[in-house]
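Hey, I'm writing a tutorial for new members on how sequence and structure tokens pair up, and I'd like a real worked example in the thread rather than a made-up one. If someone can provide the structure for the chain below, I'll link this post from the tutorial.
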Amino acid sequence: MKNNIDVATRIVSTLLVDTNVESFGVLHQSPYIQFRGKHGDIELYFDSGITFYPQRDDKLSEAERMLLGMNSVNLKRVADAFCTDTADLEVRFDDGSWFRINGTTEHEHEPWQLSDGTSVDEGGILLIASSGDSNYAVWGSIA
């Protein structure tokens, strides 16, 4: 399983390190964060809990915390990104802030997916985490 995590981490690191958060929001009821860098626009969609550091006011709803957290990383540069053995995705920024997407979903769906925005048929890459384990589905490859 270690190789699977290594491949997933290499992909997220290659696609995200040295990018900046360009945009964020909710599209078709799915939260997303878009990054921009030398590989173009990278899209991260997730259907799982997300934790931001530093954390926000506990009195806010989960949706409010998520939007405030996404706003807090807007335009920041990614310093590091990696996957865990429970399919979490952690993204760290230059200023020490970070977010972690939980790799386990309530309904055992794919908790998150990362894409370079290009169709796999046209040479794009798509990485999808499997809920709660270290399995990742990969389509395409990093050049």
